[in-house]
Predict the structure.
Amino acid sequence: MLSIISRELSEMKSWNPLLKPREQTFGSGNGPLGLQERSPGTVDARLNSTGYSDSIDFTKSAPPDTTAPTGNNALMTIDDVVMRTAFTLAMVVLGAVLAWTTLPVDEENLGPSYATAFGAALVATVVALIQAFKSKPSPALILSYAALEGVFLGVISNTVSTYIEPGVVVQTVIGTMAVFAGVLIAYRLRWIRITGRFYNFIVSATLGFVILAITNLLFAAFGGGDGLGFHSGWLGVLFGIAGLLLGAAFLAIDFKQAEDGVAAGAPREQSWLSAFGLTLSLVWIYLEILQILTLVGGDDLL
């Protein structure tokens, strides 16, 4: 499976105008997109075919480098992204399995287990924010986030499977994989094109989605019940579908960022950022699918 994904992604070409190959590189240095000045002649000649400029021969800026960069100078590849993403997701699965087996969700222990799960989710959020504001990726922070998020997912999944909808976890995992494969195919076939307008729309929609989710949580905390009802009934299903679409959109953005990083000759360490983004999107998608399937399979919709 990983080899197929790697082969499909490796055939993509970058056309992001924000990544000017003669001046910038992906994910390192200053600027809102992590772009940094780079010396001329360090970009692979294949970028001439990406649509940045057909009138400039980048290979004339410096003698060709016949040796592949190694060590700290190694460049990011799709294989790096695939392997680091697999490693990060493995940490999520490991955290989930440990939580499922060591944090019981019977009536006597459900409260402490829930407290542990939401504590782990809170710490994971803090860790994710720290990484988001760092100029360089930190594998320790990214893997810590993955493990903590896995603890949260393990307890929530075990609770839902035990009390609400048995077997829903397997369906959710299959659904998450299907969304990943579908978005990858759509992106590969260029049915999804990531433009500045698309990105701004998704960010704005996500901001509104998060505000609604927080408002619902506050109403539930202080007013009792299910707050505004965004997690129950058909309104909860519609809210979950909206969240799922946003998660799928961010997954496509993650593919684009990984593609641009490889095309722009980013350092290998930047593949951790791609792994981080893909993990965030997949966790989001998993939670939204879990909510949708739980509500659809519940008695309150009948």
About this structure: The first strand starts at residue 24 and ends at 25. Residues 90 and 146 are 8 Å apart (CA to CA). Residues 2-301 form one domain.
